[in-house]
Amino acid sequence: MDAPTQPRQFLRSRGMKIPKHPDITTGRVRGALREGLYERKECDAVMKVVQQGDVVLELGAGIGYMSTLIATKNPVEHIHAFEANPGLIPYIRSVHEANDVTNVTVHNALLAPEDGAPADFFVRKNFLASSLNRESGPDSIVSVEKVEMRSLPKTLAELRPTVLVCDIEGAEADLLACADWSGLRAAVIELHPQWIGQAGVQSVFDTMHKAGLTYFPKASEAKVVTFRKGW
């Protein structure tokens, strides 16, 4: 007699296997994953600029979707994925494992201008909106976690990334401005103008231009902006 059929444990998204999770792969997230629309703008931009041999620095690893997409679709050298929310780290690793991804290092840490004491990270009901900013949704906070604070300049010197992928919920303006990004070949950044304002958006553009990168409209859409060296 045949063994009973096991319940399906994965969603399929852009050719990847995404483990089902009762608190993560639900509602809109589940639908977007199934339809290949999850973080679509950022995914499309990254696929246009990442190349063989790149070392990718991802700030805001989320559920591990972007690092898995890059690792499975491009022969990059390595990906360093930073995620502040400690509750997501086991799930990120499960996504990597499900897709046989072995060239990603997951860091549960925050990057800052310099090393410092652990910082408060505000976990929200909508895990994608969790951030350092308490005021961006104080009523939705479910817990406050202490997260390691590492120096961004030291991290860049150690890892030497060639591509930056950044989605850090409004911290992009202050954080990116504190480091030298001239070693990058390309950057994909999701802006959050509702929190950083016009001055913050200008700061991101100024920082990238100072690093020798030019705005690349063909790989930009709405709040996702792409920069690269050369044309």
Automatic annotation (TrEMBL):
UniProt keyword annotations, A-Z: Methyltransferase, S-adenosyl-L-methionine, Transferase
Domain of life: Bacteria
One Pfam family hit: TRM5-TYW2_MTfase
Entries under InterPro entries matching the protein: FkbM_mtfrase, SAM-dependent_MTases_sf, TRM5-TYW2-like_MTfase
Domain TRM5/TYW2-like methyltransferase: from-to ranges: 41-105
Transport in keyword set: no
GO biological process, one term: methylation
Name used for this protein in its record: Methyltransferase, FkbM family
